[in-house]
From TrEMBL:
GO terms for molecular function: phosphatidylinositol phosphate binding. It is found in: Cytoplasm; Endomembrane system; Endosome. This is SNX11 protein. GO terms for cellular component: endosome. Keywords: Cytoplasm, Endosome, Lipid-binding, Membrane, Protein transport, Transport. Belongs to the sorting nexin family. It is a peripheral membrane protein.
Amino acid sequence: HAEAAFVPQEVTTVRVQDPRVQNEGSWNSYVDYKIFLHTNSKAFTAKTSCVRRRYREFVWLKRQLQKNAGLVPVPELPGKSTFFVGSTDEFIEKRRQGLQQFLEKVVQNVVLLSDSRLHLFLQSQLSVPEIEACVQGQGPQTVTEAILHYAMSNCGWAQEEESRP
């Protein structure tokens, strides 16, 4: 079967980039990260997407994935270390790398990929309660609609465009 060699391989690239401090200087400041996804996999609704998520949302995602994955181990997140020696920038960079490794492993896992929470986390800007509602069929849109709506709205691309000279 020589022709089988030409089947394009499914590739999913996921990057965690551009950490940004929100509400800087206030007691509820936090860092969020841009998650850029580019894929040719049929598992994903949108072939490219770009959303911002914070660490707390990653923690929620991991918990939900573990709940649904049963015995399939979910990759580890970078630690929550409150006691950190070194600069904040260094800490944020370490965390960014850890979050990226977490997502890279998650998107390689067929069981985890079947969880629609993961798709809404990566490809829509719905909040955690909105993702829950959507997955349970209580949201205004289906999972696919929510992702397509976000993809069409172009907010996923606005940041990409701005950063070009």
